[in-house]
Amino acid sequence: MPTLPPTVLLVEVPADTAALLDGCGYAVEEGDAGDAARRRPDAIVLGGARALDLLSDELVAVAPVLVLADRAAVPDALERGAADCVAVPFDAAELDARLRAALRVRALQDRLVSANERLATQALTDDLTGLANRRGGAQELERTVALATRHGHVLALARVDIDRFKDINDTLGHQAGDRVLAEVARRLTGAVRGGDKLARWGGDEFVAILPDTDRAGALRAAERLRAAVAATPVSVEGGEAEVTISVGWAHWSGDTPDDLLARADRSLYQAKDTGRNAVRPER
């Protein structure tokens, strides 16, 4: 697919500027400063620093602005946020070169921002399951508790542990264990509501954050998780694995995220101690 030429919006520029830039391969548009936010050009060329005050900070952050100005006005234009300035009367080749340089710098900045966003997401994501990892889950829990505190909402949390997961690894191998983890994550994801959040807390343990959930709803949610995993065996290389989970849940009572996690953890151990493949509320 051919690459589209950069769109350059010209505002209050000398009359021959459009023709000069059009000959350099740009998609040239003309308008006023008010058009900039609506048109979202790749770059903006202003005929003087005065119009800089009419551009929003958000727009200047995504589209480099070049100012055509007298040499005496160049420092002021740069101070006001211009990416670059070209002294008038200007040379067409210089304007083209400076405009392309500004576009290259902005493209590099955009790629850097995207790369940093990807790294930030990866740092909070479990590679095997695609769920939030413990760090990401902890951040989500803190955010959810803060919202519940602010708005007076109810909240529940469930801790999930795969029953006898060590036996699966020991008898079927770690590749089968990874397959079981990924499939359990998929089934848990299918069993929660749209606003609920799941995280792989580590090893074979998961956490489900259940906003706007009362005690009755928490019990139903925990049972859905258990039933979804136990419904059918998990296909692994060489056969099938019978997989079940134990679930312990707790209802938020205005305490800290760590306290809520600890109470749900005690419930989880009760589920384990009473035979596994079970759901237990906090006592």
Kindly list the characteristics that best describe this protein.
283 residues; Rossmann fold; Alpha-Beta Plaits; 2 domains; five-stranded parallel sheet; five-stranded mixed sheet; 10 helices; elongated
Helix content: 40-55%
Distance between the termini: 63 Å
CATH level-1 class of the largest domain: Alpha Beta
Going by helix content, strand content and strand pairing, the class is alpha/beta
Largest sheet: 5 strands, parallel
CATH superfamily of the largest domain: Reverse transcriptase/Diguanylate cyclase domain
Q: How big is the Rg?
A: 29 Å
Strand order, largest beta sheet: 2-1-3-4-5
CATH architecture annotation name of the largest domain? 2-Layer Sandwich
For this structure, the CATH topology of the largest domain is Alpha-Beta Plaits
% residues in beta strands: 15-25%
Query: How many domains, as an integer?
Result: 2
Low-confidence stretches: none
Number of helices: 10
- Order of helices and strands, N to C? EHEHEHEHEHHEHHEEHEEEHE
Shape: elongated
Question: Care to describe what's here?
Answer:
By secondary structure, this protein is α/β, with parallel strands linked by helices. The protein folds into two domains: 7-121, Response regulator (Rossmann fold, 3-Layer(aba) Sandwich), CATH 3.40.50.2300; 134-281, Reverse transcriptase/Diguanylate cyclase domain (Alpha-Beta Plaits), CATH 3.30.70.270. It contains ten helices and twelve strands. It has helices at residues 17-22, 33-39, 57-62, 74-79, 92-123, 134-151, 165-172, 174-191, 215-230, 257-273; strands at residues 7-11, 27-31, 43-46, 65-69, 84-87, 155-162, 197-202, 205-211, 234-236, 239-241, 245-251, 279-281. The strands form three sheets. It has a five-stranded parallel β-sheet with strand order 2-1-3-4-5, with helices on both faces. α7 (165-172) crosses α8 (174-191) and α8 packs across α9 (215-230). It is elongated. The termini are far apart. The mean pLDDT is 90.
